[in-house]
Amino acid sequence: QVQLVESGGGLVQSGGSLRLSCAASGLTSSISAMGWFRQAPGKEREFVAAIRWSGRSTVYADSVKDRFTITRDNAKNTIYLQMNSLKPEDTAVYYCAAGSKPYSLGSYYKTQSAYNYWGQGTQVTVSS
């Protein structure tokens, strides 16, 4: 089992920045990739970004590319999502997730079904 705890959400003005953190514990050796998803009110949960647990590969949704950066600190078993140039449409609950299959980051890990474990979510609100 893997436990995930997100932190770092909050209220920020349009154009501002936030950094989300997701700390993993438990059987972290089973993790192949981790990702961030978000869900806005009345909308479906959508993919934001993913990163290999080992290695440098990352992948982003088109809507956040060049504004968000996903990174990893294996020593701390933590991933981060640096969010810059935030827009009101980025307002959502952000979820961290972990998957164990060694499949393609660019396709498989863009889907929710790829992930075995999920955090509780952290609210990000961007005011205009």
Taken as a percent bin, the fraction of beta residues is over 45%
The end-to-end distance, rounded to whole angstroms, is 40 Å
Principal-axes geometry comes out as: globular
How many strands, which pairing sense, and closed or not: the largest β-sheet? 7 strands, mixed
Low confidence ranges: none
Number of helices: 0
Give the overall average pLDDT. 96
The secondary structure category is mainly beta
Spatial extent as radius of gyration: 14 Å
The helix fraction, in percent, is: under 10%
Order of helices and strands: EEEEEEEEEEE
Oligomeric state? single chain
Count of distinct strands: 11
Main features:
mainly beta; globular; single chain; 128 residues; four-stranded antiparallel sheet; seven-stranded mixed sheet
Write a structural description:
With 128 residues, the protein is mostly beta strands. 0% of the residues lie in helices and 50% in strands. The protein is built from no helices and eleven strands.
Write the layout of secondary structure elements.
Layout: E1 2-7, E2 10-13, E3 18-26, E4 33-39, E5 46-52, E6 58-60, E7 68-73, E8 78-83, E9 92-99, E10 117-118, E11 122-127
Parallel strand pairs: 2-11
Antiparallel strand pairs: 1-3, 3-8, 4-5, 4-9, 5-6, 7-8, 9-10, 9-11
